[in-house]
Amino acid sequence: MVVSTAPIIATADLTKEYAGFRAVDGVSLSFERERVHAIIGPNGAGKTTLFNLLSGFTPPTSGTIFFEGRDITHAPPADLAQLGIVRSFQITSIFPHLTALENVKVSLQAKTLLSHRFLASSRATRALDEPALRILNDVGMAEFAEHYAAYLPYGRKRGLELAISLAQDPPLLLLDEPTAGMGHEDIARTIGLIKRIAKGRTIVLVEHNLRVVEDVCDRVTVMQRGRILIEGSYAEVRADQRVVDAYLGGGSA
Q: Which of 2, 27, 3, 29 lies closest to 13, judged by CA?
């Protein structure tokens, strides 16, 4: 089997303007397969807007986005999910009054012939119990399988969101600030989760915690004022004086 060496997702001169202000300004970059790639930068650098463009939540003003060589520039998030691009860590993806197990089963169900039925009978979905439990175990959530999502601690809700996303088995997983609001214990757990699920898939994340970036990322893109400042390994970008200056004294785009 020939494995493609082409980037899984890439942008060409991607731009997003708001009332004449360029939040993302002509960004061209690519993401290698089966790597963990971080987008970082000071507040207002444009990284979240870029992330929203990649995940289909914000339409670009100009430029192009390619996934597996296909133009997906104006595809909505639901269509991107069908193609294999899933964005995780959005609290709205959880059904609060279902158990953790039921939440994952709903996500698995979306890929079966039962997808047109929100919650089919327990008998019809029983076959999904084992794969759902396996996914919960993968993210360290097996013991919470019968807990209602609404009552899970914040860090565990994040773990459940990840499980819901993994149920789609996406080749490209987009993580939006996966450790935001977490304490030290939950951050350490999330670092371990990302490392475990990275095998065989591409992960792109926006992250403020540089410890997380150092621990899990193969490549880092630093943004400032809507543009790419530098790209490289964590050690390379950390040693660059422009990055130091951006974090300590500028970048308010």
A: 27
List, in order of start, the domains of the chain with CATH numbers. Answer: 1-84+173-183+204-253 (3.40.50.300), 92-169 (no CATH)
Can you give the pTM of this predicted structure?
A: 0.84
- The per-type count for the chain, helices as H runs and strands as E runs, is 10, 10
Is 10 strand, coil or helix?
strand
Tens of pLDDT along the chain (253 residues)? 445 678 999 999 999 999 989 999 999 999 999 999 999 998 889 998 999 999 999 999 999 999 999 999 999 988 998 899 998 755 557 899 999 999 999 888 877 645 445 455 566 678 899 999 999 988 888 999 999 999 998 888 888 988 998 888 899 999 988 888 888 888 888 888 888 888 889 999 998 888 899 999 999 999 999 999 999 999 999 899 888 887 765 444 3
